[in-house]
């Protein structure tokens, strides 16, 4: 027995039923408390991640409505500015393909430990210390 030996790490099992693809388009989370506008961040046939100013709480039933389809589901997790939607039934492959083709994701904000470095510097541009990080890219 080695007292200070490192433990071998066990691989973490993937919880998602299918891989997600990064996309970017406007969505509306329709729920009994009122409609919540947001942006589709990523999507798979079983769920999606949404960015929204005030996302609904965990467990809330919603209809995710976006330009290429709609799906019924519930909020599987929620934190400030973002939430996950798990669809009740997998969305049709044609709907998923159309969303991925028509709403590809653009560049995303890369966070840096140094607040003086703007996202343009991280993405290969020249640093602009007056630029503020963007919430949604």
TrEMBL record:
Pfam families: PilZ (PF07238). Residues 14-97 form the PilZ domain. Residues 118-137 are annotated as: Disordered. Transmembrane segments: none annotated. This is PilZ domain-containing protein. It comes from Aurantiacibacter sediminis. The lineage of its organism: Bacteria, Pseudomonadati, Pseudomonadota, Alphaproteobacteria, Sphingomonadales.
